[in-house]
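As the work plan foresaw, the team has encoded backbone shapes as discrete tokens. One protein thus recorded appears below exactly as we store it.

:::
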Amino acid sequence: MTPDYTKVHRRFKLEGYHYDHNTLMEVAYSFVKEGLPYQHDLGLFLLDWLDKKDYVKVKTSGSTGKPKELIIKKQHMVNSAITTGDFFDLTPKKKVLNCLPSNFIAGKMMIVRAIVLGLELDMVQPSALPRIDYEKDYDFCAFTPMQLKNFAKYLKSIRTVIVGGGRVSNHIKALIKDKKPQVYETYGMTETISHIAVRRLNNFEGNETDHCFKTLPNITISKDARNCLVIEAPNLSDEKIVTNDIVDIFSKNQFEWLGRYDNVINTGGIKVYPEQIEEKLQDLIPQQFFIGSVEDDTLGDKVILVIEGETYALDKTLFDVLEKFEKPKAVYFVEQFKETSSGKIHRAKTIQTLSL
């Protein structure tokens, strides 16, 4: 029988203590009134989760535009938690660690999984290097790419790690290549209630499709006329989810992410995917950077490279790894990138600050 969102699993623990519905409400109130900032956010979400409404309001990250407020059914969040629990073998009394903020969907779902599946949840303040008890073993944890990079040498204390919210660089992949824990990159968004697909980042089995994302059970994928991913997940959403992510589909449950439709550059009649160029350059440019475009009378749009930090003479030979139409026609430096409310680079706003 599928668990109901109104129930708190009797095996659930928060910071080592058992809570039922009523006592969890009490601790939520105390977090809101007296807790640290991250505990305040945790308390607010718990109060939302435990109230009588059958939905919660969630904000998107605002990666490609203004953050939106979405209404998500609590039962859909329960269904997502069960799917993740089945896939990663998260059975009652397993120990999980949450170092993500509770005001975005990834952090919220770590809490929901613990409540629904009867997990023992520890919370730590979100930061680039979370202050974790390295002597304690955990079965499951979610990181951002930056957290994974900084925490890589301590991974032996965690059995399974998922990472999302941004690109996982080749440098990070190299750091975790031979680590014992299983590390998975996730694909998802607020609309899909966290991840709907994962791909292994280490301990590969040697399959040709190791680079592909594999969908979780009960997820159907297809492409629209723009070659963007369309997701059907009746347990997570009452409607099809049409994304702006351009993909190649290899099977009914495998796809490769190519880039964002919003970011595609049409330069001289050739479509260029900035994310693919960035992957080729990521080990060659130490600073934070991105590929964008500006209007051009001849090409329509010309490819540009934008680097964060002080101006310096860039060795143009590093572009030798790129195809002719991928090579930036201009390089710009900015003191600091504009960011979204969730800390991601806001490409459009940053380009608006350039002296063109």
Remarks:
- The radius of gyration is 21 Å.
- The chain is about 25% helix and 30% strand.
